[in-house]
Amino acid sequence: MNFLTRLRRFPFWAWFWFILGALYFILPLYATFSFSLSWDPADPFKAYERSFGDSRFWNSFLYSNMLALATILASIILVVPTAYWIRLRLPQARRIVEFLTLMPFVVPAIILVFGMIRIYSTPFTIPFTDIVLMQPLTNFRAGTNILIVAGYMVLSMPYMYRSVDTGMRTVDIRTLTEAAQSLGANWFTIITRVILPNIRSALLSGALLTFAIVVGEVVLASFLGVSAFGPYLFLLGQHRAYEPAALSFVSFLLTWLAMGLIQLVSGGQGQAAGAH
Amino acid sequence: MAQVSNSSGPMQATSWKVWLGVVPFFLFAVLFLLSPSFRLLTASFSAPDGSFTFDNIRQLFTEPLIVNSYRLSIQISAVTALGGGIFGFLLAYSVTVGGLPKPLRSILVTFSGVASNFAGVPLAFAFVATLGRQGFMTAILKDVFNVDMYEAGFNLYSFAGLSLVYMYFQFPLMVLIMAPALDGLKKEWREAAENLGANTTQYWLRIAMPVLLPSILGAMILLFGNAFGAYATAYALTGGRLGLVTIQIGAQIRGDVLYNPGLGYAMAVGMVIIMAVSLGGYSWLQSKTERWLK
């Protein structure tokens, strides 16, 4: 009798769906990992040694990390003062700014890069004349870097803005600002020494999400023609078998690391889309 | 510099100077978000000689290549939104009200956060290693169960294969949206229903589902948009053989494959409109559920 009631209470279907989901998660990762080890039975980590021994991997990977870092810094410089100002003085701008930060969900990366190329591959001229103010951004390296970082800022904007704005909701920025002002602090000091330290966990989770989006991003990078990690992995997959599997597994671990750290700092759940 | 303590006064709010604080943000948005989108819009209305025309928009609905690519994109987005939505809901159900041990929930949510971000090239490669011709699962099915998937007509580089790959980032997104919504189901509702003599089926059909339905539909619409905008995964897997809208647009950027630049811009605009409608639908349905699930 006791056994029967326990059997009836046993959540069979819940376990069934959970195990099915777990298999869906794990099988592709396990398959990738075991395939990456199968190149040479005598030396299971050959694919990893070859991948990490290739200077083009390090160049593209470091370049992608630099892009991620630049995107994170520029986003913080742009988003934090804006979110702060809207909370403090300009609540009537909230709706329009939130709308703009959500627009990247409507304008996918492929469309964004299409429009960017269309605009910034022609030189800037003074209207109605042929006097060239600036060469097309896509024509020189620094210009392309500006363009791609700006594009990544757009793609990560929904996560960065929401993360920062939520962080500011939990601290009383008005009181903090008044206290700092009565001690004689200027706006720069208030933002860098009072507001930023108070929202550091929100900043960190926004930054990690941005990192997860940017490292491995392939659409903007390949259409703007930069040699980032995403296009490198794609090209490697065209003519190699084992190294791409090894690097795919590594980039999964990186995503896992970023998400795990977000869990750790915020206790919340990180979610990004757009790199698809 | 104005004092903050004045800011609550009605005079302060009307001053145009406070708007200066958000100028950098708007400047950025205009330069890198609005003007690229707007330029595509205007370009979609211009003929090759630069004059104004509706031809490009009209051809979106008549040119077979374009109609087919929209149909294919809509089909794959709908299939994976429905499949991912149902599977994701069942998973979210199993860890919230389904009676599984508590720690499994945080494991599933963390994994969902990772998987919904794990897309593009590495995801495509992972599925080649799993379900490709020499894939891990393909081999197991052949050796252990004596089932040859490729003999049976399965192909990873086809519609069905790509759908399975998309599911990998679709259902985790559903889990992330639905787990908090399922938490919003109050115990009291179930107790009240049971006190009035309702059984489990009646409770789910008559109480839980009506409350959750807008949220489920909204999340599925979001999944639809999520798949519709995807490019890298499909391109890395099929190399452009599956003519989704995003793949066609990518080919058009690389070189004018439609032999009419305006048509490429019109395709992009059509895509933005579909994405906007789906996001709008999501937020409208989301606002409907908030009344109950707060």
Description:
The complex is a heterodimer of chains A (276) and B (294). Chain A is mainly alpha-helical. Chain A is 74% helix and 2% strand. The longest helix of chain A is centred in the N-terminal third of the chain and has 34 residues, at 55-88. By secondary structure, chain B is an all-alpha fold. Chain B has a single domain (53-290), classed as MetI-like (MetI-like fold), CATH 1.10.3720. Helices cover 72% and strands 0% of the residues of chain B. Chain B is built from 13 helices and no strands. The radius of gyration of chain B is 24 Å and the shape is globular. The interface between A and B is large, with 95 and 93 residues.
Describe the secondary structure blueprint for this structure.
The complex is a heterodimer of chains A (276) and B (294).
Chain A: H1 2-9, H2 12-36, H3 46-53, H4 55-88, H5 94-102, H6 109-120, E1 124-125, E2 132-134, H7 141-170, H8 173-182, H9 187-198, H10 200-214, H11 219-223, H12 229-239, H13 242-266
Antiparallel strand pairs in A: 1-2
Helix pairs in contact in A: 2-13, 3-13, 4-7, 4-10, 4-12, 7-10, 8-9, 10-13, 12-13
Chain B: H1 10-14, H2 23-43, H3 55-62, H4 64-96, H5 102-117, H6 121-131, H7 136-143, H8 159-183, H9 187-195, H10 200-228, H11 232-238, H12 245-254, H13 261-290
Query: What's the β-strand tally of chain A?
Result: 2
Tell me the name of the CATH class of chain A: Mainly Alpha
Do you know the CATH architecture of chain B?
A: Orthogonal Bundle
- Uncertain stretches of 5 or more adjacent residues of chain A: 268-275
Sheet-strand content of chain A, in percent, reads: under 5%
Q: How confident overall, as mean pLDDT of chain B?
A: 87
- Following the backbone from N to C, one meets helices and strands of chain A in this order, namely HHHHHHEEHHHHHHH
Structural class of chain B: mainly alpha
> Describe the biggest sheet of chain B?
none
CATH third-level topology of chain A: MetI-like fold
CATH architecture of chain A: Orthogonal Bundle
For the largest interface in this structure, which chains are involved and how many residues does each contribute?
A: A-B, 95 and 93 residues
Amino-to-carboxy terminus distance of chain A: 52 Å
* Mean pLDDT across residues of chain A: 87
Helix content of chain B: over 70%
Please identify which CATH superfamily of chain A we are dealing with: MetI-like
Instruction: Estimate nothing, just give the exact number of structural domains of chain B.
Output: 1
Number of helices of chain B: 13
Q: Tell me the name of the CATH homologous superfamily of chain B.
A: MetI-like
